[in-house]
Amino acid sequence: MTESAGSAESNVEPGLSVYDAIRRRRDVRAEFTGMPIAADVLERVLGAGHCAPSVGNTQPWDFVVVRDPRTLDRFADHVADARLRFARSLPDERRQTFDPIKIEGIRESGMGVVVTYDRSRGGEHILGRHTVDDTGLFSAVLAIQNLWLAATAESVGVGWVSFYDESYLTELLGIPEPVRPIAWLCVGDVAEFQQVPDLERLGWRGRRPLADAVHLEKF
Ligand SMILES: Cc1cc2nc3c(=O)[nH]c(=O)nc-3n(C[C@H](O)[C@H](O)[C@H](O)COP(=O)(O)O)c2cc1C
User: Fold this and answer.
1) Is residue 149 over pLDDT 90?
2) Less crowded by CB within 10 Å, the N or C end of the chain?
3) Rounded to the nearest whole angstrom, what is the distance from the C-alpha of residue 62 to the centroid of ligand 1?
4) Are 60 and 117 in contact (CB under 8 A)?
5) Which one of 27, 78, 138, 198 would you pick to mutate in the ligand 1 pocket, going by the greatest count of ligand atoms within 8 A of its CB?
6) What distance lies between CA 77 and its chain's CA centroid?
């Protein structure tokens, strides 16, 4: 977008276009450098998450920033067990494809941002959730996508880890009822962004063509 001459000061921060950020975004696992990210960058990335739309404007998310190496170690050990359980559940051929795939960068990133969902936020009468209860959860997930794209625009990597038991993570971080952890995001400085998703590069599953996902008039 070009600014017209004499216009008021722009609020738009310089950086990638939203399309560039969408194209560049990757789930990062192996490319974390371990270098800390600057406090102002983290603030902007979390701020972007916090700008997400939400049902009834409930803003049901919270962000728990975890840097204590002992917590990272404990969570990484738990995730390693969950990975093993999944590997063992696979038929031989799938297991061979899965084995070399890295599924987290918990220690290497040096930081986890755990996004939680609080169903009780906003009280009982949630405008828009009375018909579709999942809209609360959808809202928290939108905060994650905002955060992920903003991080990409800042050249910060994000990797979503879901190989965990919810009750374990709830206890590990002292998350009170009825708040649920919905994602552990490894967040950190990266050497590079892969151009092709790991799961596609390593033969697990590729992307569907857009034409297969678009339906006209009826499903
Ligand atoms: C809800 C959700 C959970 C995910 N859980 C994991 C995970 O536990 N481990 C992992 O390596 N990647 C995980 N991913 C990342 C996906 O594997 C990744 O987004 C997908 O392969 C496409 O790659 P891309 O994000 O680089 O485009 C998760 C992604 C989402 C949206």
Assistant:
1) yes
2) C
3) 20
4) yes
5) 27
6) 20
